[in-house]
Amino acid sequence: MESLFDGLPAEEASARNGYARNTIDRRSEKRGADSLATALADPSARLYLFRGDKALLRGTNPLFSHREATALGELADMILLGWSESGPRLAAALADATPIDEALIRPIDLRSLAVEGAVGPEHLGALAQARALTNWHIRHRFCSVCGQPTTMTMGGYRRDCPACKAEHFPRTDPVVIMLAIHGKGAEERCLLGRQARFIPGMYSCLAGFLEPGETIEDAVRRETFEEAGIRVGRVRYHASQPWPFPASLMIGCHAEALNRDIIRDEAELEDCRWFTRAEARQMLAGTHPEGIKSPPPIAIANSILSAWAGMGGGAAG
Amino acid sequence: MESLFDGLPAEEASARNGYARNTIDRRSEKRGADSLATALADPSARLYLFRGDKALLRGTNPLFSHREATALGELADMILLGWSESGPRLAAALADATPIDEALIRPIDLRSLAVEGAVGPEHLGALAQARALTNWHIRHRFCSVCGQPTTMTMGGYRRDCPACKAEHFPRTDPVVIMLAIHGKGAEERCLLGRQARFIPGMYSCLAGFLEPGETIEDAVRRETFEEAGIRVGRVRYHASQPWPFPASLMIGCHAEALNRDIIRDEAELEDCRWFTRAEARQMLAGTHPEGIKSPPPIAIANSILSAWAGMGGGAAG
């Protein structure tokens, strides 16, 4: 191997996930108290709008001028996302009760929007960024240190407490999501689980929030053991994904399973099974004889499963 | 390659970082409202204690029985970390003003504690977990949604708002930390920067908080460009580390630099330079002729730099 990068696939796995490929230039090091007003004054500024959990679309267009946005209702929590090639990009939320003429404007949740391909792929990452931040502001009107009202600054990337002077920053919650793999050759199997809330027939990777004081690898081992009773040895990072429900960072891994006797966490999982590579391919292709489905391509679990299923005769992709 | 795991080093890079190797069994799926009281009633229960930012030690022992702990002062924010082989492990904070007989008990910050090796390595991960959580509770007495006081539950892994019913979970902040590498063979160089707050002579990897709506790889590219004007192509995950100042998850990567002309962010970095592999080895060994130092082994930057410097004639470690 000539360099540390020679082993990497030509196309970055993370870039293929839903909500990735965010092309907004954040210029985070230049954010200041007046960045937002300056950007908004630019005639090329455009806003992504939300009402509650839903983004607003006109046809396939998620962007509104400031004038168009204010005509719809009062804008709370305006945020400067950054700059696209066409100018500043911002986000704002309308109050939940704001009436909308749904003949002209369609409110849509970000999951449906991604699965349907309702907007151009260049908007998905920006909408994920916008949704994580607007949700954070809605849930952080008050200072968690002293209980007093806070105010937004730094283009929406900080909230300050005038009373106790605490500064609060947006949070991103790391989640580990992993495919445990056991055995070799004809005996090789992958571990997938099913939560009761999933659509019928869908099985996915196990996943859980990383906790304070653990490495990614330790979190993968802990969650796999807690949910399925499977011990994990080596862990290999695969890809990451912003997941705006509301603000997770999905960290996708393959995990070397050390045993095959599943002890399912019944509160968490409705079922948990080992699958062959042939079955994984059928699930991904929608041809599994039992109608078992993989998660859709927007989900990182699809990418984690595909990377294993696509290995052919055992050669790493 | 026979399996996805064959390319991984025998010893996991993450496990070599400071505060890693946390052997506490968290049993997170079994946490309930009464877990803490049950664990504390176990005569083998032991507590890690903090006063402000500092852990309390008796000699090299960071553990106190419940009786010993309450004799020192009122315990706030008691948390159930989980179980060691010797019994339940908890953490608690004494009020900042609590007097301590420093002839018997030594308060020490977690950085000094790790650098000095002041406690056995089996305690470092548990102390990081404890510190992240005690700090989170201190900063979350009030509900960020409605401003009312919150109460701790689930062994310290949740705070509930009796007024608006919001549930709040501990946060862990993902940080990307990366070594950009440019060129091949004799021209290969790595990029290190120096912040004014560093100890004299120390250079380290660039780093920054991952923001909502970006992948790990995108965050590596954004931070490297913002801090040093260097464009990054491919990104390779190296290792992760819990970093309890107060609750970060360090995500360490190697980054393929596409240009060599540095444009330093002067607000962030006092200096930023390219180093040869020979220099990197000297820095790690403490023999650099200009007295330039690498970060200490407890920091993931040391591991990221070592992995590159240790490649010898270009072979990946």
Major beta sheet summary of chain A: 6 strands, mixed
Strand content of chain A: 25-35%
The percentage helix of chain A is 10-25%
Per DSSP E runs of 2 or more residues, the count of β-strands of chain A stands at 15
Topology pattern of chain A, helix = H, strand = E: HEEEHEEEHHEEEEEEHEEEHH
The rounded Rg of chain A comes to: 22 Å
User: What is the terminal separation of chain A in angstroms?
Assistant: 16 Å
Structure notes:
The structure is a homodimer of 317-residue chains. Chain A is of the alpha+beta class and 317 residues long. Chain A is built from seven helices and 15 strands. In chain A, the strands form three sheets. In chain A, strands 1, 2, 3, 4, 5 and 6 form a six-stranded mixed beta sheet that branches. In chain A, strands 10, 11, 12, 13, 14 and 15 form a six-stranded mixed beta sheet that branches. In chain A, strand 4 and strand 5 form a beta hairpin. In chain A, helix 6 packs across helix 7. The C terminus of chain A is likely disordered. Chains A and B meet through helix 4, strand 10, helix 5, strand 13 and strand 14 of A and helix 4, strand 10, helix 5, strand 13 and strand 14 of B.
